[in-house]
Amino acid sequence: MLSLFRRLMMNTQGAVVIEYTLIVSLIAVAAIASMRSVGGKVSNVLGT
Fold first, then answer.
1. What is the domain count for the chain?
2. pLDDT over 80 at 25, yes or no
């Protein structure tokens, strides 16, 4: 596992993949948080 991590750190393509993974995960977290917020508001509107 450590050798795989070292190879990824030396390979610039591995760094790009890690960066894209971080960006996508941050976008996913933001989308989930906003959907939960909007979902609760829509539920309240439809309930009344």
1. 1
2. yes
